[in-house]
Amino acid sequence: MTCSFLLPLALWCLIAYLPVWKSEIRISLSSDANNSDFPTVYVPGDHMEEARFDAFRAAVRQDNTDPQAAETAAAGRRANKRILRGITPLALAENWITPEQEKDYAALYTVWQRIALGELSGGLSQENLGIVSENWADMSAVSPSYNSRNFPSEPLLKLIPEGKSEVKRPLFLPAPHEIIARASEDFRGQSELGDLNVWGRYLVSIRTIAGGFLLVCLVGVPIALLCGTFSFFSRLIEPFVDFFRYMPAPAFGTLLIALFGIYDAPKLALVFLGTLPQLILMVANTTRMLDTSLLDAAQTLGANRKQLVTRVVIPGILPNLHNDIRILLGWAWTWLIIAELLGVKAGLTEIIDTQGRRFHFDHVYPIILLIGLTGFLTDQFLAWFRGVIFPYTEQGISASARSAARVLSKVSPLRLKRALRAKPVTVAT
Amino acid sequence: MTAPVLELPPYTRQSPEVEARFHKLKKRPVTLDVNRLTKVFSTPQGEVTALENVSFALHRREFMCVIGASGCGKSTLVRILAGLESASAGEVLVGGESVSGPGPDRGMVFQGYTLFPWLTVKQNVMFGLKMTGHSEATAESEAMQWIELVGLASSAEVYPHQLSGGMKQRVAIARALANQPRILLMDEPFGALDAQTRAQMQSYLLQIWRQVDITILFITHDLDEAVYLSDRVLVLDSDPGRVGELIEVPVPQPRNPRQFLTPEFLSAKKRLEELIHPQQRDGEEDRLPMLRMTKVGDDVV
Ligand SMILES: Nc1ncnc2c1ncn2[C@@H]1O[C@H](COP(=O)(O)OP(=O)(O)O)[C@@H](O)[C@H]1O
Ligand SMILES: [Mg+2]
Predict the structure, then answer these.
(1) Exposure string for A36-67, b = 16+ CB within 10 A, e = fewer
(2) Cα–Cα distance between A355 and A351 in angstroms, integer?
(3) Contact A391 B159 (CB under 8 A)
(4) Chain B contact for A23, CB < 8 A?
(5) Distance B50 CA to ligand 1 centre (A)
(6) Are B69 and B276 contacting, i.e. CB atoms less than 8 angstroms apart?
(7) Which ligand 1 atom minimizes the distance to the CA of B77?
(8) In A230-291, which residue ranges form alpha helices assigned H by DSSP?
(9) What is the reported pTM?
(10) B7 pLDDT exceeds 90?
(11) Number of domains in chain A
C-alpha cells in the first residue's frame, strides 16, 4: 500500500529534479541599462537567462563607468531619483520601510544613508555597497536630508542588478520542496494568499459538503429504501431518476442561483442535486440485493410488513449502505468543487480558481492535495468504523475496531436501559 | 455374472408394534390437511405446472418426509404451506383453518442459512417472539430455553458468522420452534452439511421431535434421511409434481443409526429408489458415451 503512494511521488521527484530544466536568474535587485539590448524594465521576480543577465549587469556597469550627463538639471534629477527608488523592493522586502512609504523619497533617502553608514546591508553585494557609499557621498554633499529641489543632478551610479540562479521548471511542475515550502507558508497564513485564509476556507468547504451530504442522505435513503422494497415505488420513481441522472447537475447552476441566491444555499443544493440520483439508484439496488430468504424467514416468524422493513430490511442493508455512502461521499466532493464556483466563489475552490487563473500552481497543488487527503482519510476512517458498528460482518476487521466495538457494546442503549430498569438493592435496616 | 442380491421382505410388511403405532397415529387429529393443491407458474417461456392435485394429511406429532427428484416441486409445496407462495388451486388447512399467508403457527427452516447476521444467536431466537408481541424479558427467557434445547447455551451471545453450518441450523430450528408452531416445515435443512454433521443433526432433530409437541414436514432428496427420520414418506413424481405414493416406513420407533442395515429399512429404501428412478432396471447402467482421447487399460475395469 505504501508503494502505491511512493511510486507517483518518486515519479514526480524524478521529473522535477531531472537536469533537463534550464537554470535561470531570478532578479532580486534590478536597475535599468541605457542600452538598446535591454529596452524593457525588469523588476525583481523576473527571470532572465544567465548569459543575458551577465550582459545586463555589464551594460549597467558600462553606464556607470561612462556616465552620460543629462541635458538639463531637471532631467538629471529625474534620472537620479529613479536610481534612488531602485532600492525600494529591497527596502520593502527587508521591512526597512512600510508599504505606505513606497513613494516616500525622504524615507528612501534615509535608507541610502543607513546603508552607506553600514547600519543596513540586506545582502547587497560588495560592489553595490560601494556604489551606495559613493552615491551617498554625492547626495549628502548636496543635502544631508531629502529635499526635492536640492538633489544632485550630476549622474549618480546605478545599482548593479543582482539575482539568484534558479532551476526554471514549467509553471505546472513545481518541485516537491517548493510545494512543501509554499504549503507550509499558506497553511500557516504567512503568504501572499493573505486574506484567503486556507483553514477558514477549508471549514467553509467542509460545512458545505457535510450539510449537502447529510441532507441528501436524509432525503434519498428513505426514498431508496421504498424503491428497493416495494416494486410500486420502484416503478414510480426510478425511471425518472434514471433520466434525471443524465442531465448534468451543473447545468442547473444558474437556476439554483435564481432560486437560492448567490451564497451558501445554491452550493448545498448542487451537492444535493448531483448526489441524489446516484444515491437513490445505488441504495435501491443495494436494498434489492438483500437476501430474500431473510425476508421469507422473518415472515414465517410472524413479522408484518412494517416489521419487515424496520427489523429486517434496514438492519440487513446497513453494512452495504455504509459502503454505498463511502462511494457517494467521494462523488459529493466532486460536486462540491463545481458547486463552490456557483455565485460568489467560496471555500477551497476559490483559492484554486483565483490562484489557478494566475498560474500560481504552487498555491493550487497544496489545496488539491488537502482535498484529496481529507477525502482519503475520511474514507479510511469510515472503513475502519465499519468494524466498530458492524462487528458481525466477516470481512477484515482490524483489531482496534474490534476492541472499539466491544467498548461500544458495553454502553449500548439496550444495556443501559436494562441497568436502569434493574431494581436497586434495598438494604435491610 | 452378477453377485447374489439380498432377499428383502416387502416394504409393506409391518411388525405388530409398527402396525399398532400407525393405527394410533391415524387416530390422532389432523394438523395439516392439503387438498388438491395445484401450482402453476407463469414464466416468459410459458406456464410451468409445479404441483398438480397434491393431497395428503399430517397427523399430530407425525414426522413426514417429502422426497422427490430435484425440480419436482418440493420447495414449491413447502413454500405454499408456509404461506410464502400462493396456490393456484386447492387449499391448505392447519388445525382445520384455511391458511392464506405466512403465520407463526407454521415455523420453517430453510436449506440456506437464514439467520439474521446482525443479531446474536439469542436475539435471532427471540426474533419471532418479539414479532408476535412478547415482552423483551419473556422473549429472552423463552429463547434461552430453546437455545438450551438445541445445546447452544454457551454460544448465545455469538454472531451467526462465528458458528459452523450445523450450529447455524440448530439455531434456525430453535428460532422456528420458539414461536411454538403447530407444524415445523423443513426444506432440505441439512442439504449443505457434510455427511458426519448431517448424521449428528438427524439424531438431534429426532430427539427434539420426541421432546416437543410438534408435527414435522421434512423435505429431502436423500433416501436414507427420509427412511431414518419419518413415520411416513410422501414421494412426489416429477413434472408435474404429483403424489406418487405415501409409504409407511416399517422401521420401529424410536430410531437409531443401527437400524440403517435392517431388512425393514432397506426394503423401504429400495421401494423409494424404485419410485424415484423408475427407468433404471436391474443390471442396467447409464452408459456414458466413450470419450475420444481416453484409453483405458483392461486392468482398470
Ligand atoms: N418462482 C418461480 N417461477 C417460475 N418457476 C418456478 C418458480 N419456482 C419454482 N419454479 C419451477 O417449479 C419447479 C419446481 O421447483 P422446486 O419446487 O424448487 O423444486 P425442488 O425443490 O423439488 O427442487 C421447477 O421446475 C422450477 O423451475
Ligand atoms: Mg428445493
Answers:
(1) eebeeebebeeebeeeebebbbebbbebbeee
(2) 6
(3) yes
(4) no
(5) 6
(6) yes
(7) 17
(8) 231-244, 253-260, 264-288
(9) 0.77
(10) no
(11) 2
Has residue A196 got a pLDDT over 80? no
Residues of chain A with pLDDT > 70, as a percent, come to: 92
Task: Please tell me the distance from the alpha carbon of residue B151 to that of residue B207, in angstroms, as a whole number.
Answer: 12
Residue A70: DSSP 8-state: P
pLDDT tens digit sequence for A84-131: 888 888 888 888 888 888 888 888 888 888 888 888 887 888 888 898
- The pLDDT confidence band at residue A414, using thresholds 50, 70 and 90, is low
Residues A35 and A147 in one domain: yes
User: Which residues lie closer than 8 Å to A324 by C-beta, 6 or more apart?
Assistant: A279, A282, A283, A286
Q: Does B84 touch chain A (CB under 8 A)?
A: yes
By three-state DSSP, how is residue B114 classified?
coil
In tens, the pLDDT along A4-29 reads: 889 999 998 898 888 888 888 888 88
Q: Ligand 2 centre from B111 Cα, in Å?
A: 8
Q: Which domains occur in chain B, in start order? A: 26-105+182-277 (3.40.50.300), 111-180 (no CATH)
Q: Does A416 touch chain B (CB under 8 A)?
A: no
DSSP-derived letter for residue B182 is S
All three cell numbers of A266, joined, read 445554491
Q: Does the pLDDT at position A360 exceed 90?
A: no
Looking at the complex, report in whole angstroms how far the Cα of residue B172 sits from the nearest Cα belonging to chain A. 9
Range of the domain at A249: 198-398
| CATH number, domain containing residue A394 | 1.10.3720.10
For residues A82 and A227, membership in a common domain is answered with: no
